[in-house]
Amino acid sequence: MLQIKGLKHTYDGAAVICYPDWEVKEGNHAIILGNSGCGKTTLLHLIGGLMPPKEGTLEVAGENLSEKSKAKLDRFRGEHIGIVFQKPHLVRSLTVKENLTLSQYLAHKKTDSKRADEVLERLGIKELANRRVHQISQGQAQRVSIGRAVINNPKLLLADEPTASLDDENCQKVIDLLKSQAEKTGATLIVATHDHRVKSEFQNELDL
Q: For the domain that residue 9 is a member of, what is the CATH number?
């Protein structure tokens, strides 16, 4: 599912970030561990097709992202990758359900209301479907963010610091939720975090 070789990235001529070669097989759950500022989020954004790598090879689902234009990266991401950002970035003017169907629209997929209902029910928040973003809690917003990431049945599910501000109980709940949603959609899961509490949940680990 994922293969990285000789991957490097720089920001506006700043210090070069060199990433170790790494492989994650289809359907596996993996973790990227490291302190703040080590390049975890950047690597996740590279894997997610949010930016092109400066040097090296990055293959996702058999496609070499290093060779794709920004427009092709956007299309590929919409079709194959779901991302749970550290902050939910939900559209406040839309309802919870509309935030999910928006993901379908942006991925050039047919809007499927029943699929949105199914995802919300699976996440335990179906009763929130018609609420606006400002009417739900932070924890509920995080679940909506996960729902938005999995609604299009991605091949690859990425999560950036999903447990950073959570207590132990809720930390475990979020990791369990991410893993269960990945399994139900057949997705490969990669979590980037500095939270060593979740280290034991993953066998494939990349330390930065």
A: 3.40.50.300
